[in-house]
Amino acid sequence: MRIQLIRHATLWLEYAGTTFLVDPMFSDQASLPPIANSGDERRNPLVPLPGPMATWLEPDAVLVTHLHPDHWDDAAARALPMASPIFCQQGNGEAIASAGFALTTEIQDTASFRGISIHRTDGRHGTGEIGEKMGAVSGFVLQAQGEPTLYIAGDTIWCDEVKAALDRHKPDVAIVNAGGARFLAGDAITMDEDDVIRLIAYAPYTRIVAVHMDAINHCHVTRERLRTRLADDRLLDKVVIPEDGDWL
Q: How many separate domains does the chain show?
C-alpha cells in the first residue's frame, strides 16, 4: 500500500494493484470564497496543489465520503473522466451522476472492486444543531488479501461510530481528518488534537495518519499545532503528519 496526500483530504491510494482517488478537491488556490462564520476571511483553498492536476486524473476508481465542496468540488467534477467508477454514500449518487458520471455506486454497507472490499463507515460531522446541519458523512475501510486494512475516517469527530468502525475492522492504518474545523459558534466538526489523542488511547494498534490541515480557512488545527500537542504528550511517534505531496 502506498498513500499520497495531495492536499486537505484529497488522497491518491495505491492498493492491491488498484489506484484510488479519495475526496478530490482540485480548485485553484484562492478560487473559492472563505467558509462563512469561521472568523477567517482568507479565500480557499489556502494553498495550491503540490503538482499538476493531470497527475491525479486517471485513477481506477474514486471514493467520495460526502459532497461538501472541500471533498468533491466543481473542478474535480469537470476534470475527471466521465467513465470513472465512483463510490459514495447513500443519497449522494444522484448528484454525482447528474454531473455526467455513469458508473456511480452508492455503498450502504460493503461493495467490491477488483477483489478489494470497500466497507462504508458512519461518523458525526459535529455535535448538536450544527452537526445535524452538516448532514450525513461516511468513511471507508479497504481490505484485500496481502494488504493492510486501511480506515479512511472522513469528516467526523471522535464518536461512538468511529469506535464501532475501529472495533469491527481493527485497521492497521487510520487516516483521520484532524484539522479541527469549526465555526464561530459550536464545537469542532472534524477531529481536533484532543480527538486524535483519544483515538491513540482507544486503538493503540493502528498507525494514525493525520490530514485535512492548512488548506481550508475554518480548519483551526494546523500541522504545527498538532505536532506540538503530540510532542508535549510524548505521542508524536504515534501519528504521521504528511505535507502536501508526501508519499507514505
A: 1
